[in-house]
Design goal:
Chain A: Keywords: Cell membrane, Membrane, Transmembrane, Transmembrane helix. The complex is a heterodimer of chains A (363) and B (273). With 363 residues, chain A is mainly alpha-helical. Chain A is built from 14 helices and 2 strands, in the order αααααααββααααααα. By secondary structure, chain B is α/β, with parallel strands linked by helices. In chain B, strand 9, helix 7 and strand 10 form a beta-alpha-beta unit. The radius of gyration of chain B is 19 Å and the shape is globular. The relative contact order of chain B is 0.18. The N terminus and C terminus of chain B are likely disordered. The chains are: A mainly alpha (363), B alpha/beta (273).
Chain lengths: 363, 273
């Protein structure tokens, strides 16, 4: 150093938090508290049945498939995009996997493995189509994935002539769909948990995750810094498609059916979970952990309402209100934090501010 | 350390040191418009060279050529004693040339460390090496005598304009760069923040870097620049030392392109050409 040697005085007082610990401070934490309170209330009202192993098992089973979709959706929404096609891609992949497994024959693990490859390939293909259209053709993600929502479901119905397939192999149905990996721990939930942990590491610990945040925050800044923005966007949509394909296989095992008519609300439910979990629909902010919590809330509510004898349809009303309230409170909180320039809140941003910044051209 | 050439930089400030960047006879046209005509330009290690000129004089074109984003049509580009051909920004970065553009292009939702390393992250087995990046970020900011940032894990959205400029400049120097081009770094800043950024600009030069400062504000220029180069309608009207001229003389060159007031066109060493 030259004569102007200085001592390092920059911010050593609060030890820089790691990316993983920062997510605990996200809105997800508040949502987690809401979830815990909800569980506590239902447990108090129905102490004999609500917090039993059997009931918990049902709840995590019902959340598992959404969680797999939610991981991919979180990445897509953090880039500032949206993927409406996940439900249809799930169905399409289930149909293709079923057809391929029947063609291959057998009821064992080899057949399931062949089905897995078919489901992943189908999902990846749709994800790539979405990604290329969004990144290269610059068609808005809402339109692209609305198109693939329609087209993927159409192809699934063409292949099946509109009739659900119910001939998934025994290994898939008995061991993955309904099986337990140990004791009363359902395999499907463990598989989903592995996907979730993978998603958390990918988002918060790797270059892939960092670029996902960067694109949602300011794509032009990323581009100037050497981030290949288009290529990364394609990868993110491909990843979401891949997971939708994987969820298609899990769905086939769990319902023993391709559920062609049963997935029209799936993308909206998943998006609601992502938003409740603190991921900003404007991009640049979010976490996989929050998404998982956000997906649990509707399912716990539905389960609890049934048990306490409230019409389960109330769940939809409550979830809708929670969704809007959570996003509104979050916006207020971020705006306040930004005015106070508090360094304690990670990923804070004015909603929409990032989007307008990214549209600024280079000088 | 992030600026190992710092010690060498002190020697480079002497009168007869060769320029780090030397452009000769640069031409650049966009279609029929001859934007740069036989431009000569020098920038010295350890010195701030201000590049001034009215709108449309060719300042942006000149720095985009230096940065490689819009390569020159013809002319000699000598960097660090070697004739080079810079055809893309990556090539310029490899040489040690960084440009901080006016719109800073930072990611609001990412923190300071993430922004400093964006696109060039340090990874270990595919996982981001946060500890190493934090340490290098601390070192770089300390090397720039930056004391105004509370935590390097603050998100950029919570920073002031001056602090954001600081982050953008730190990003330019974190990779041992030799030449930093700053495009209007104080344009959108208040008085106190302008002071803060100008101190940083001076610090860069004192650390041994060659700094090219584009500015419309002659107060800023006279405060930090060692040399002033004036572009007028695509030609280099004058290159002079700050101590040899007065503000009103520079204004006359900027507005008329004539350098009679300062005794003819000089090559920056005070010699008549």
């Amino acid at each position: 150093m030259s004569a102007t040697q200085t001592t390092p005085t920059v911010a050593t007082e609060d030890a820089p938090a790691s990316r993983l610990s920062r997510i605990s401070r996200l809105q997800a934490l508040q949502i987690l508290i809401l979830l815990v309170v909800t569980i506590a209330v239902f447990t108090a009202l129905r102490p004999d049945t609500f917090l039993t192993g059997f009931n918990i098992r049902g709840i995590v089973q019902n959340t598992a498939i959404y969680a797999v979709l939610g991981v991919g959706m979180t990445f897509v929404i953090i880039t500032g995009g949206i993927d409406l096609s996940v439900g249809s891609v799930l169905v399409f992949s289930g149909v293709v996997a079923d057809k391929v497994m029947v063609w291959y024959g057998g009821q064992g693990w080899a057949t399931v493995l062949v089905g897995l490859v078919a489901a992943l390939a189908s999902g990846l293909a749709w994800g790539l189509v979405n990604g290329v259209l969004v990144a290269k053709a610059k068609v808005p993600p809402l339109v692209v994935t609305l198109g693939s929502l329609s087209a993927a479901l159409g192809f699934a119905q063409i292949i099946t002539k509109g009739l659900d397939l119910r001939d998934a192999p025994q290994a898939l149905v008995n061991d993955i769909g309904f099986g337990n990996i140990v004791g009363q721990v359902p395999t499907i939930a463990v598989v989903a948990a592995v996907v979730v942990v993978f998603g958390i590491v990918l988002l918060h610990r790797t270059r892939f995750g960092l670029y996902t945040y960067a694109i949602g925050s300011n794509a032009e800044a990323g581009r100037r810094s050497g981030v290949k923005v288009e290529r990364h966007l394609i990868k993110v949509y491909a990843f979401a498609g891949l997971l939708a394909g994987f969820a298609g296989l899990l769905n086939l095992g769990f319902f023993q059916s391709t559920t062609i008519g049963g997935q029209s609300n799936t993308p909206l439910n998943v998006i609601a979970g992502v938003a409740i979990g603190g991921t900003s629909l404007f991009g640049g902010i979010g976490s996989v952990f929050g998404t998982v919590i956000g997906l649990f809330i509707p399912i716990v509510l539905q389960n609890g309402f049934i048990q306490v004898g409230v019409q389960p349809f109330w769940q939809q009303v409550v979830v809708g209100a929670v969704l809007v309230a959570v996003v509104y409170v979050d916006q207020l909180r971020r705006a306040a934090a930004l005015r106070g320039t508090s360094p304690r809140l990670p990923f804070l941003s004015r909603a929409g501010g990032a989007g307008s910044a990214s549209r600024k051209g280079s000088a | 350390m992030t600026v190992p050439e710092a010690a060498a930089g002190a020697a480079a400030t002497t009168e007869d040191a060769a320029p780090l960047l030397s452009l000769r006879g640069i031409n650049k046209s966009f279609g029929a418009v001859h934007v740069l005509q036989d431009v000569d330009f020098d920038a010295y290690a350890g010195q701030v060279t201000a590049l001034v000129g009215d709108n449309g004089a060719g300042k942006s074109t000149l720095i985009k050529g230096i940065a490689g984003s819009q390569p020159f049509d013809s002319g000699e580009y000598v960097f660090d004693g070697h004739a080079v051909t810079v055809t893309n920004p990556k090539h310029a970065n490899e040489l040690g040339i960084e440009v901080v553009y006016q719109d800073l292009a930072l990611c609001d939702n990412l923190d300071i460390v993430d922004n400093l390393f964006l696109g060039r992250e340090v990874t270990k087995n595919g996982i981001l090496d946060e500890a190493t990046m934090e340490r290098r970020a601390q070192e770089t900011l300390a090397g720039l005598s930056v004391r105004t940032v509370k935590s390097i894990r603050q998100v950029v959205a919570s920073l002031s304009g001056g602090q954001r400029q600081t982050v953008a400049i730190a990003r330019a120097v974190i990779w041992n760069s030799k030449l930093v081009v700053l495009d209007e770094p104080t344009a959108a800043l208040g008085v106190a923040q302008t002071e803060q950024v100008l101190r940083l600009v001076r610090q860069l030069a004192d650390n041994g870097l060659a700094v090219v400062l584009i500015s419309h504000n002659l107060n800023d220029v006279f405060q930090v620049a060692d040399r002033i180069s004036v572009l007028y309608l695509g030609r280099m009207a004058a290159q002079m030392k700050t101590k040899d001229v007065k503000s009103n003389q520079v204004v006359e060159v900027i507005t008329t392109g004539r350098s009679d007031a300062i005794g003819g066109i000089t090559n920056g060493n005070g010699e008549l050409k």
